[in-house]
Amino acid sequence: MANLLLEVMRERMMIDRGLVENVYLPWLMSVMNGDLKPGSLLNQKKELSPTAYSFSKQSFAIGGRSAAMAMDGATQGSVAIVPIIGEFLKYGTQCSYGANEIVPAIYKAAELKNIVALVLDVDSGGGSEGAVPPFIEAIKYVQSKGKPVVLHGDMVASAAYYIGSFCDYLMADNHISSAFGSIGVYVSYMDYKEKLEKKGIKHKTIYAPQSDLKNHEYRELVDNNNEGPLVNNILVPSATRFINTVKANRKGKIDEGSDVYRGKLYEGEDIVKVGLADGFGTLFDALDVAAGMANLRHFG
After folding, report:
1. What is the Cα–Cα distance from 276 to 116, expressed in whole angstroms?
2. Is residue 235 exposed (0-12), middle (13-18) or buried (19+ Cβ within 10 Å)?
């Protein structure tokens, strides 16, 4: 669990700081102090439920304890649904799902002949930067098999949008709660140095002469209150990669000078107006779009 907290706190993609400080951190301290058992927080995490929608029976085919069993039981011509819910990391924990738990279901959808398309059902404020590449690779693999990938989402922000931009069609769920965007990066940290020094505790780190650039950005920030190296060496390149990726994936749909690329989060009709999504609709609408695209690809 300490790994979860550390990864959340150090990542540059959007993860709610309030969640970390008000939930994860107090819980972790309680566990370390022996006040709570490790399983006391969010111990109701349930297994992912990838599903397959059968257009011949007009019903959901949900089955088994794994993605394979759920999709294997679907009829020919079905569209697989894989949920990406909540903030995600590269590896799953007791509290959250990881790319290592979700991505196999995406690959499974690519391999099964009875699955003709994939819908990613997304409701996520983002996640760790390290979790993005596995999702991208999996989406591209599905597409390489000639199967369209449609994103249906309510909250699709930051790293979740990074992933979503690779999909063939993006659909926002509604005009009320849906929010897309937050294309940008940031880093946050807590400086306890002054508080610790008041208690007589001093933290010192000594580096080898040959390692003068090790942790340079962090040291400049903490020791000299100099944000420059962190901004220029880490945040700017990361944000540039993110922005350029979305520009390439949504070429012709989002204006080059749009505030979309300044990290703004859009709601309601503006989601489609600025080009972050291609339309509005329910999950069933997304399934229809995916099935229609699959039909055109295979029989058009």
Report:
1. 25
2. middle
Q: How far is it, in rounded angstroms, from Cα 266 to Cα 221?
A: 32
Q: Give the amino acid at 12.
A: R
At 106-117, the pLDDT tens digits run 999 999 999 999
Nearest to 265 by CA among 166, 177, 133, 136: 177
Would you tell me the crossing angle of helices 132-144 and 99-111 to the nearest 10 degrees? 0
**Mind listing the pLDDT tens digit for each residue in 91-138?**
988 777 789 989 998 999 999 999 999 999 999 999 888 999 999 999
6 domain residue, yes or no: yes
Tell me the residue type at 95. Answer: C
242 part of a folded domain: no
Domain encompassing residue 138: 2-183+254-299
* Residues 194-241 pLDDT 10s: 888 888 888 888 999 999 999 999 889 888 989 999 999 999 999 999
Q: Max Cα separation, the chain?
A: 74
> How many Cβ atoms from other residues are within 10 Å of residue 27's Cβ?
19
Q: What SS3 class is residue 107?
A: helix
CATH number at residue 15: 3.90.226.10
Q: Mean pLDDT in the chain?
A: 82
Residue 213 has what DSSP assignment?
Answer: T
**Is residue 197 in some structural domain?**
no
> Residue 203, exposed/middle/buried by CB under 10 A (0-12, 13-18, 19+)?
exposed
Provide the token pair at 175: 């005009």
Residue type, 188: S
Distinct helix (H) and strand (E) counts, the chain: 13, 9
Token code pair at residue 144:
């390489």
Distance CA 160, CA 132 (A): 8
Asked if 132 contacts 98 with a C-beta cutoff of 8 angstroms, the reply is no
